[in-house]
Design brief:
By secondary structure, the protein is an alpha/beta fold. It is built from 9 helices and 10 strands.
């Protein structure tokens, strides 16, 4: 079994099924549908696992490995946000690597693969969530200076203290994408304030944006971020970073940590 039902065994793909049928991979035969089961022949090799007992309705069933299951599920998505949610969650939770997902896309079918391709490119660029991928789209469309996603911020000993959602390294500027869920209680709010104050004390400037605002007012978001970056460059008496869009780490690796003295 593969696709959405297999993805659910790995704990991703919330919400309802992406298709009315259950996808089953077969080493031979022809494409056919029988009693709600869609049989898809494939000559591509894929890992096989046993669905964990935590998913009672499918415990003990043979399922495709995470990368294949996620890729097959994304092919059934009718919206880009659904494919992004599947792919970013699978990488963020360590279920599979960006390179394994890229391999699945490259070796898989091209028809109907646009959402899968976009989602895989998102994680290659460093996005770890749908909100980050959507913010990246807006920053790219607005031709803002080059930036990095999910960069580790380390102290002088090399210990990672925080992770910046969006970083302009030469400007020492951090943009955080804060959802309501993240600030659902007082402890989360206080932790965010402490983090902000510590970054500011170390000489970084930090702004916070909600995904709903980025999605609902993309032009206003982009305009304010651009003005903020221009002012920051003037404060540091430096130029804005050349180019536009995300800086993609080579080979699906994480960006180099940004060492911040005093952090």
């Amino acid at each position: 079994m593969s696709g959405w039902d297999a993805a659910r065994c790995y704990g991703v793909g919330g919400g309802g099924p992406l298709s009315d049928t259950v996808l089953v991979l077969s080493p031979g035969g022809t494409n056919r549908q029988v009693s709600g089961i869609r049989i898809r022949p494939t000559i591509r090799q894929f890992d096989r696992r046993i669905c964990p007992g935590s998913v009672r309705s499918m415990a003990g069933l043979h399922i495709a490995g995470p990368a294949r299951a996620i890729a097959d599920a994304a092919l059934d998505c009718r919206e880009l946000s659904s494919a992004r949610a599947l792919v970013t969650a699978s990488v963020q939770r360590g279920l599979c690597s960006t390179t394994s997902l890229l391999s699945e896309y490259q070796s898989g079918p091209r028809n109907g693969s646009y959402f899968l391709r976009r989602a895989v490119l998102d994680v290659l660029d460093g996005a770890h969530s749908v909100a980050e991928a959507e913010a990246m789209d807006v920053l790219v469309d607005a031709a803002l200076p080059t930036f990095e996603l999910n960069v580790a911020l380390a102290d002088q000993s090399g210990r990672v203290r925080f992770v910046a959602d969006v970083l302009w390294r030469s400007l020492r500027a951090v943009l955080e994408i804060d959802s309501r869920a993240h600030h659902g209680n007082e402890a989360d709010r206080l932790a965010t304030m402490a983090r902000h104050n510590r970054l500011a004390a170390a000489g970084l400037v930090v702004v916070h944006w909600a995904p709903t605002v980025i999605r609902g007012e993309p032009h206003g978001f982009a305009h304010q971020v651009k003005e903020w970056l221009v002012r920051r460059a003037a404060e540091l008496n430096t130029e804005l970073p050349p180019g536009t869009g995300p800086i993609r780490p080579p080979g699906g690796a994480s960006p180099q940590p940004f060492v911040v003295p005093g952090l």
